[in-house]
Amino acid sequence: MSKRAPTRTLFFLRSRVWLLAASLAAAAVAPCCAQESLSGSPIVLDRAVAVVNKHVILASDLDDEIRLSVLDPNTVPQVEVTRQQAVDQLISRALIEQQIRQQDMQAIEPSLQEVNARLHEIRAELPICVRQNCASDSGWKAFLAAHGLTEGRVEAYLRYRLEILRFIEQRFRQGIQISPQQIDLYYRETLVPQFVSGEAIPPLEQVAPRIQEILLQQQVNVLFDAWLTNLRQQGDVEVLDPELAPQSTPQSGPAAETPAHSGDAERGSR
């Protein structure tokens, strides 16, 4: 089993909720048709594909979501996010944004230092970025150009994702208590069995902080999933494009993403 760098543990755990964060376009509804330009060539205008409590999701938003999905650590190489998956993610995000707007946005707005730190983390650790040498300025510019992105768009995207992550942690993490018994159980039943005979097993006191963070994040995810499912049920959500309508009950936000196995991540943190 390959070993990951220590910083990968929370990087991949947090990716479970990171999928829920992207910039939402505040564009007006455009006619769903084409008009003739002065040169006679047709101009395809933007169109609404879904409405979430009067918030309009446009076809261009889906395109943007698909382009930005390359920055997600769980994106499988050569497997593009479908438009149906993109609209489901944008619906979840619109519901979350509407809840954030009911609170003090200034209280959860990330600083420039936090945005830059997250950008550095992506450039240095995101697998696709590591392969394309995004840590260098030339490699990063080539990566952005290859995926139709700009530095400003990526920074805005990360800022919004940080806002959502902070909102989720403020709302659901407070009050969660992880007992020493839970940490000990995870250590004995999840972590230790992953080591083969002869391998040195780190002592519990060394890995206890990491295990506590894993268990905290797991409980946050459970609470968040239930909350988002309830928002979907109570909200006025309409998918206007029949081709984008879910074929089955969509998983709520983070549950739609498969994070790295927490035990594997902890094992790699030695």
Explain what this protein looks like in three dimensions.
The two termini are 13 Å apart. It is built from 11 helices and 5 strands, in the order H-E-E-E-E-H-H-H-H-H-H-H-H-H-E-H. The protein has helices spanning 8-18, 59-68, 83-100, 105-108, 112-125, 127-131, 137-146, 151-172, 180-191, 204-234, 262-267; strands at residues 34-36, 42-44, 48-52, 55-58, 237-239. It has one domain (8-194, 202-255): Porin chaperone SurA, peptide-binding domain (Triger factor/SurA peptide-binding fold). The longest helix has 31 residues, at 204-234. By secondary structure, the protein is mainly α. The strands form 2 sheets. A 3-stranded antiparallel beta sheet has the order 4-3-5. It has a two-stranded antiparallel sheet with strand order 1-2.
